[in-house]
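Quality-control log, excerpt.
Job 1 of 2 completed; input and output follow.
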Amino acid sequence: MIVSPSLLSADFGNLARDIEMINHSKAQMLHLDVMDGVFVPNISFGFPVMKYVQQLCKKPLDVHLMIVEPQKFVSQVRDCGAEIMNVHLEACNHLDRVVQQIHDAGMKAGVTINPATPVCLLRDIVAQLDLVLLMSVNPGFGGQQFIPNTLNKVRELKALLSEKNSHAVIEVDGGVNAETGKLLAEAGADILVAGNYVFKAQDPIAAIDTLVNL
């Protein structure tokens, strides 16, 4: 299993320490949740923090924009070293165009859908995507409980990707731990985003190992 720990749950007073832990772990990516207080009811961090993370982190950056009008920031996200730029379907009036902009900037393109958004709305875009992120909590805050219906959405998305011959991988974010992670792996998820389960653990590297070995 690919594991992408969520920086949102890190200790921002000891950010260098926590990123160094990620560097020495088996985590394959680092997930950055950028929130604007408009699309979601919270504000997280912006480009100065992302540039700092880029300087320290040796793992690919998986940038998830929980913001309105993400198309305005494609070049800034690229310049912060993102390998993946992930935008919300719900935030993009012209999603096809945004996906093309991300690819033209040299990044992998991801699209996220919220818990109440049906998988079928991705039908006409999945063939162009590198990644689909299913939110298994309502976005905006860490530490929420996993929404069980996400398992059905993973299975439905897996079938859609096969039908459309899409090479996109399936990422899931929200309430991920050893128990929900096992269920998600069985359902067909490829990448697990984990925040509190990793950064609040007594042994974060062991927590990451547990998810990697699912």
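Job 2 of 2 completed; input and output follow.
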Amino acid sequence: MASSLLKKLNAIAPAKPAAPSKPVRSGLIVRRHSVPAEQALLAMDGARFHALGFQTESARDCLFLDTETTGLSRGAGTVAFLVGLGYLDGNEFIVEQYLMRDYPDEIDLLNAVCSAAQRFRAIVTFNGANFDLLLLNSRLTMHRMRGEMPALENVDLLLPARKLWKLRLKSCRLANLEEHILGQPRTDDLPGSEVPGRYFEYLKTGNESLLTDVLEHNREDVISLGKLMTVLAEAYYKPEEICEQIDLFSAGRVFESRGEKEQAKRLYTMASAPRPLTSISALHAERFAGHANRHLYQLYRREGNWPEAVRILETMVMRRQLGAYPHVELAKYAEHKQRNLPEALLHAEKALKLANDEEKAAIQKRCDRIIRKLR
């Protein structure tokens, strides 16, 4: 009887748990790479950093950082499982990568990053202010390690890159800048959207070969930070050497916003210079030449330099730039500065013919007022 009962109990007992499909592992995977440092990076000085809007004095003071994460949110469940760090050592650019074998290794990873950061004054990122550094800081807070990370200047390259190249390139993703600015498109690179999936699959299987492409993707990102920083710094340090007409206009807006009006005028003048219209891109650039002339006119107008301001407007009329705008401004000048109502009416009527639907009501109102004054 007892034997029969024992057999029945064994039959309904839960099965023993299966052996894990991955080996037990702990500790960080640490990789170290070395490549010859580019001369432009070695020559980065305080003047070039200041041109970018940062206070750092030398590239040797910089720690370049890029993370690979388990997701794109900054919620409590998102972890930076791989951190790539780059820095100059003599004439070499060193890339050190710290990768968690499993979640318990996160404290070791954070300790490694904080320890490395102690040796530098600035940390160079691409969108780090909005993602990488915020995520790392939140993880440090969760582990009660917030005070371990030194307060470094964040040289975030995304904002100056957008200000200079967004009008022309539309997308300022790092991969797009590598292709169109650095002239170094990646081949056979792992898309960033696939990185979290690779790591989760690795956690299930323990197959470290799944992470080979992730490590290479991260290493290329860190190296690109150094290259991109030097190209950006040179463009801001010597903006007159920018070749693309649209980028010259973008640079003019940057310097105008900084209050460097004379430099802005020079860049707007270069951006507005006539060029052969031999391609679609040249036609696109010509539209921004009109915007450059508009900004140039507004700078002269604010200074009260009306001869130069009127000359710019007349140039815009001759080159048929921005439709009704230069005629409207010439009508204002003739009406309020010259007290020449017939001339003002002439330009207002020309503006009305060129105006779009949104502009017509205001221009018609201007015409009617000038006519009343003439009567």
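Post-run check on job 2. The radius of gyration is 30 Å.
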